Amino acid sequence: MGFNCGIVGLPNVGKSSLFNALTATAAAEAANFPFTTIEPNVGRVAVPDDRLTRISAIAKSAKVTPTQLEFVDIAGLVKGASRGEGLGNKFLANIREVDAIVHVLRCFENDDVTHVSGTVDPLRDAEIVETELLLADLDSLERRVTPLTKRARGGDREATDALAMVERVLVELRDGRPARTVRVAGEERKSFRMLQLLTAKPVLYVCNVEEDAVADGNALSAAIAARAAEDGAESLAISARIEAELAEIDDLAERQQLLESLGLHESGLARLIHAGYHLLNLITFFTAGPKEARAWTVQRNTKAPQAAGAIHTDFERGFIRAETIAYDDFVRLGGEVAAREAGCMRQEGRDYVVQDADIILFRFNV
Fold this sequence. Notes:
flat; alpha/beta; single chain; 6-stranded mixed sheet; 12 strands
């Protein structure tokens, strides 16, 4: 799969409770004290997709396999993490390994749940975490300036380009702006990614609100939504407590009844999974047949051979063509045979860019 989101936040904001509900396990102990989670817990969750259900019904598939996202519950951060305070070094190392950041913020008052800073202020909490990531990036880039400058003066073109990128990013960081605000042209993206910056990762702020505010949020979550818009991030309001309750209900009808009583159409976790999928700029394509209907995850703008490689490396290595049906045609016509007869199965080559919801049969030869 290869796509994951790191769940981060200050201690006691509800991130481990959220992770537990997300993965429907008790892998992450959710206790009322800092550093409950020391080693990052990892859970894979299915991405809800009604299209897969319809495809499997039409194809009369014996097995249905959804695509998945990986969530990593990372140890709680404290102020000074960039200097190694608390579990700072481990925290930063774990964040470097994820593709996107899900930043959980406490947006509810509860005297029974202590806060590491003494008061509830999600804007301050967001600033603490963002500042630690920014300081770590600053330190990383400033260490590179001298060696890159020496190489650039010696005529090293690669070092010259890298130095120019480093200096551009440093301007933003020194002004307190995350690296993701830097505008990077297509040909510069590779060198930008090579910097491996923490603040370049896409961010989703998850506002953990009280039960009464789960449908519309509250003043605290509204303030975070405004900050997210300014920082090029996204935000979402959910209640970790409600999600934990939902995770314990096996009966789908009973679960839906609880959601409707709260004014919700789907769980916060379903919205979180979809948001993570969007955050990583992912799309889904499908394979379907009598044995199995399956969803596959690739990044947007992926070409057919690389999409085939998501299934098996041999498919990419020996790629011949992709026999492709658009989802709407597949559903409207009632399956592969009818789509083929109607001329709606396309023969696509190596340059074809896979579209979201394509149903594909890859032809290959190894």
